[in-house]
């Protein structure tokens, strides 16, 4: 392996990335180039900013505060590094090692080249100059012992990059099955998003505790003592976390260097280097076994025997109430297609994530201070979250069919029946998740039983109210999506804007429910408590009107679908 080979690999990686940006459209290419230039400019500026800030802040930085500062830097770096890993999940290796096998380079050399090329990332481009500038400034102020920051940072980068490289290689083997790949991507994304919310949840908890502990009137000395106590507790928690979590060894080693305990800095550096070396060795051995054919999923000659299932027990043999047999078959077919699509699992994460954040914010307040008339309002917010979570699927519902959309052109049925089947196929998912969110919210706020029942009916009402908009945008502005992620292939400006605005207006479906609840509250304010559940009665009447409007829209949009079905086919069958 020579420097020229490494340089060629970097050039190849740059060309691949540039071609990917160009295929995504001119606007996306310009935005990515602007982002790249901005990243390089910020990296250069971070060196000087860190050097100047470190030089003047060094006299007031105690070893403990220096550790807390680098804890914040490490957390920020891990967040952006993890974001990049989640973005690149579909590719286990930046450049497949199979492309190196015909070149005059050993497998070990190709492995090292591929690993080194993975180090070129925006996160590292911004971390290393900042670390270098801060290390230079802090060394000039505190002495030569702070040069330990250099090996600590190098070993930290080695540990993170090697573990990530091994993790991506392990995911490559798991995601060879496309359906399994969708589940793995969904699980990783939801884990990453949930972990990203942990700091905000802790800040809300600490803010609430501080508000409860802090008295109405405190002297300057009391506030200073309380601030010192909070800082001491933060340092104790940070030291414990740094000792347990390996990425925290980097700030812990920097604190030890500032205190003159070079042996502890050496131990932290050696520990991170050992983890990186072991991880890189295991990754290489796994790669070697794969390309030597040692790993195989099934023994040779093994034949999987599938048991036949009677027709009466199959999913497609079931019946759907309130629709004809032909429409019921299309509903079941669409539901099966949706559940088998890997990208559906990713889209189902949106309502779960938003519900978690929304519920955490709600629990951070005082439930007992909410008046009786306002208790249904958080539950009504579930309607907006449910509609927003399914907006991406409803606004581009034909993209799941891809080449299978040709079957609709050959089926001798009314086009409004196709739209009805599409909408009813999404209904169990939307209603099921929405009902689970509503039950969880009701456990917290304890609304009146009539309010709970009315809000549950509003889930169906809001869904049927949003379906005409989803049908219109899906027909008028279809867009192809990639298999496994659901991302739009070569997005165009007008369809992207229409789908974006359609998703933004999704929470408006909760407005009618809030208005009906307001009518009940207004009547009770004028006449006092009444035994009649006005909100529930008005919700049932609204459901009837929405069903009439939905059926009327099916006839109009069915005619539009018949005129544009060929254009939709040509659009969504673009190869990702």
How would you sum up this structure, described in words?
- The protein is mostly helical and 576 residues long.
- It folds into 2 domains: 3-178 and 229-291, no CATH class; 318-572, no CATH class.
- It is built from 22 helices and no strands.
- The protein has helices spanning 3-23, 26-57, 63-87, 107-118, 122-142, 149-174, 178-196, 198-213, 220-244, 249-258, 262-291, 325-340, 342-347, 349-363, 376-389, 391-394, 406-410, 415-445, 449-476, 493-504, 511-527, 534-572.
- The protein is globular.
- The two termini are 35 Å apart.
Q: Report the major sheet.
A: none
Average of the residue pLDDT scores? 75
Count of distinct strands: 0
Structural class call reads mainly alpha
* Approximate shape: globular
- Give helix % range: over 70%
Measured distance between first and last alpha carbons: 35 Å
Low-confidence stretches: 90-94, 300-304
Rg is 29 Å
How many helix segments? Answer: 22
Any descriptors?
576 residues; 0% strand; mainly alpha; 22 helices; 74% helix; single chain
Brief characterization of the structure:
This protein has two domains: 3-178 and 229-291, no CATH class; 318-572, no CATH class.
